[in-house]
Design goal:
Layout: E1 3-8, E2 14-18, E3 38-40
Antiparallel strand pairs: 1-2, 1-3
Length: 66
């Protein structure tokens, strides 16, 4: 079940909710003020890849040089 991110347009709270379907925003209420005046936010995600990162600039890992 995907997690969707919302912002309450009444009190400004940003919160997440597990939902079975994306079109059910009318069923979402703010957990603090219980307003149904919420907006779905654009979610971002990170993924890890098993590939090489050679040629990458920046980051936390040492470059392997000497």
């Amino acid at each position: 079940m995907p997690i969707f991110e919302f912002e309450c347009l009444k009190c400004g709270l940003q919160f997440e909710k597990l939902m079975r379907r994306a079109g059910a925003i009318s069923d979402v209420a703010c957990p603090v003020c219980e307003s149904r005046n919420v907006e779905e936010k654009l979610s971002t995600f990170a993924s890890l890849s098993g590939g090489s990162t050679s040629g990458s600039t920046g980051g936390c890992a040492p470059s392997g040089g000497g």
